Amino acid sequence: MTERKSMKGYYLTTFLIGLGFFTMGLMDPLYDTYVPVFLRKFIESKALIGTIMTLDNIFAIFLIPIFAALSDRTRTPIGRRMPYIILFLPLSAIAFGIIPFASLSSLVLLIIMIFALNVFKQSVRGPVVALMPDIIPGEIRSEANGVINTMGGIATIVGTLFLARLMNVTVELPTYGPTDQILAFPFAGVLVIIAVILLFFFVKEKKGSYSEKATEEKVPILKSLKLIFGEKDKSAFFVLISLLFWFIGYQGVLPFVGLYSEEVLITSPANKALAAGMVGVSYAIFAIPSGIVAHKLGRRRTIRGSLIGITIVLLLIFAHSIFIANPEAIAPGTYAPMNFVLISFWLLMFLFGIFWVSVITNSFPMLWQMASYANMGIYTGLYYFFSQLASIIAPPITGALVDLFGYGALFVFAAVCMLVAFFLMSKVTRGEPKDDAAPVAS
């Protein structure tokens, strides 16, 4: 019996790999918080805003699996993932920085820049995420994914608790004059480019690749997909369907948290992002411990327990929106002070983040445990296919629910989705650290 590998000796490498995930954690919360606000300058209907927020995910549902699978088959002197990272992440940073300026011009230009950002960002997301399991042994990937998610959490903190402060800063722009809600996006873009430079120079993919099950065989994509879905054991299928539901719940709420903070809690522009910031703080604190806990209790048990925790928190947020939040108490034209209403909401979002990071930290490693080196990118792409499908399905539904029943319906809908995912996960029998990887297609 071989001795179990330890994270000791892998932490620095994993943190460096996490720079790629840092870029996503930096852009995503700012995007989700402020782009609906930019869109609202031109559009009143929450359902239509939700629909537009899903258009980028239509690109994602195709681009992430395609480029993740392509990177499986790519062979270059700098590795198979790195060429996509150094091309698409800087382009993402540039498009991201331009978005608030586009919102000053027209809806058409704003949507064009949203599309450009997401074409670049979704093309690189699969290769970025697949880089870690290429290098880190399977039995410690929950712990390693905890480190990666910590980097994402730190990025969320930087974006929502610090860069978001810049949204209150007024700058003088030619033609437009004094303008606010601008600076966080270009500053984030600069940080993304710096992260790419560090990632490229300090992570040597070819030298560091984990090779215990490595193969130079380029497995045909369709053959690998057939192998995955043709397995007798349907654990991978049930993980994918489960994550579809928990992401429907998550993505149904996420695009409207900024608007909820503004319209119900009456926060200032900078404080709109603090709800996402609380989730980021949870990520940074609990991502690594959640991986360690899963190694002791099992990934499936940890995920199912966390889904119950999320359901309870969402119902508490629903109760908060009904019984505690009171926008009529705020004088028109003013913002809410730092009071019990805001602090209790942020605390609930912090609790949400604790359970959510436990789900995210351990679901990816479950799928990777069922993969081989040759089709790691395909499994990564399937994860994103189903999560992005949720991003397309959820916002129009929850936007319509808000239009019909108010913001409280968001949280009830999400709680139901989490419960469905909880029951589906009971069908999963593989994906624990002790399990063998899937066979290589032949």
Task: Report what the structure shows.
The chain is mainly α. The chain has a single domain, classed as Up-down Bundle (Growth Hormone, Chain: A). Helices cover 71% and strands 1% of the residues. The protein has helices spanning 11-40, 46-73, 82-103, 107-135, 141-162, 184-202, 205-208, 221-230, 235-253, 257-263, 274-297, 299-323, 340-369, 376-405, 408-424, and strands at 171-173, 177-179. It has a two-stranded antiparallel ribbon with strand order 1-2. Strand 1 and strand 2 (177-179) form a beta hairpin. The longest helix has 30 residues, at 11-40. Mean pLDDT is 81; it is low at 207-216 and 437-442.
Record keyword descriptors for this entry.
globular, single chain, 442 residues, 2 strands, two-stranded antiparallel ribbon, Growth Hormone, Chain: A
CATH hierarchy, class: Mainly Alpha
CATH-scheme architecture: Up-down Bundle
Biggest sheet, spatial arrangement of strands:
1-2
CATH superfamily: MFS general substrate transporter like domains
